[in-house]
Design a protein that fits this description.
The chain is of the alpha+beta class. The chain has helices at residues 2-19, 39-45, 56-78, 85-108, 116-125, 147-158, 163-170, 172-177, 192-198, 233-263, 270-276, 285-292; strands at 28-32, 35-38, 136-144, 181-186, 210-212, 215-225. The protein folds into three domains: 24-83; 87-129 and 232-293, no CATH class; 132-225, Chitinase A, domain 3 (Roll).
């Protein structure tokens, strides 16, 4: 009898464990009716790389925006606005555009290999695009607040200390923006009181302290180049690579369309199209396409 009672209790426990609903593991932040904003959804909306720098206010702003959007969305559904023919047309159009973007992203957004020979060839054939329009210099730079600080820094460098090490220690520009080496600039790129002085120095020179409205400056002249010369290849190489890669992707896109048109028949009723144009001289679709090949 006691054994039968034990078996009965075990059976009841087994049935109860099978019929008890599972605990919902979703971490719901906000719910409006049947719609929910979960922690998983929030993680998908904010890229992992950005999450460490996203502020509390930005997260709260996103959550509030989700609430506002959801309230309007649900009210629009109540009004049956999703059933209209215009909405369905726009929805299908948006779907088509999204699918096209995803397809092209998968097919065309792969890394493009740009050959070194092509880079050099483009540089030589388009050198006029890299012409320097005015005299330019490239420098190391120190900025301090007072003339006394500038004199001490200048003396240290003149006595043999490394310019960059001194700049890291005393320069306001380094403390503020971690900036010591300035890329090529012309007279028009800096304030007149600096331009009048710094361009007088030769390559390799250390300037005396020069005063401006920002404080006192010390420059070491790294490079000088004159109007009419050309930028070096290494200076413009990344721009050339980007342009050539863009050209390759553009050609891939054109080749893709040609291949698809060869596989899928495209029929065009040019008479109807001509009726649509106000200008009867407009070119038919096939002609427009052929001109772009």
């Amino acid at each position: 009898m006691r054994r039968n009672h034990l078996v009965f209790l075990i059976l009841i426990f087994f049935i109860s464990s099978c019929t008890t609903p599972k605990v919902d593991e979703k971490k719901v932040i906000v719910s409006i009716g049947s719609s929910e904003l979960t922690l998983d959804m929030l993680n998908k909306e904010i890229p992992a790389a950005l999450q460490p720098i996203v502020t509390k206010d930005q997260i709260n702003s996103y959550v509030q925006q989700w609430i506002d959007t959801e309230l309007i969305y649900q009210n629009a559904l109540k009004l049956g606005m999703d059933l209209g023919q215009d909405f369905r047309y726009e929805l299908e159009k948006a779907k088509k555009e999204l699918l096209v973007r995803k397809y092209l992203s998968r097919i065309l957004d792969e890394d493009v290999d740009v050959a070194e020979d092509d880079i050099h060839k483009y540089y030589e054939e388009n050198k006029e695009n890299f012409l320097i329009g005015s005299d330019e210099i490239k420098v190391l730079h120190i900025l301090v607040a007072t003339k006394a600080e500038a004199n001490v820094a200048h003396r240290r460098i003149a006595d043999g200390e490394d310019f960059i090490e001194v700049a890291k220690e005393v320069s306001l520009d380094y403390a503020d923006q971690k900036r010591i080496e300035l890329d090529f600039f012309s007279r028009n790129d800096i304030v007149p009181e600096l331009a009048r002085r710094v361009f007088q120095y030769r390559k390799g020179s250390l300037t005396a302290p020069i005063q401006s409205g920002f404080g006192y400056h010390i420059f070491k002249i790294l490079e000088k180049r004159t109007k009419g010369s050309y930028k070096e290849l290494d200076e413009v190489e990344s721009d050339i690579v980007n342009r050539l890669a863009s050209n390759q992707k553009s050609q891939q896109y054109k080749n893709l369309l040609i291949d698809l048109r060869n596989k899928i028949r495209v029929k065009t009723n040019e008479n109807i199209l001509k009726d649509f144009y106000k200008d009867s001289t407009a070119a038919p679709v096939d002609l427009i396409y052929k001109q772009t090949q």
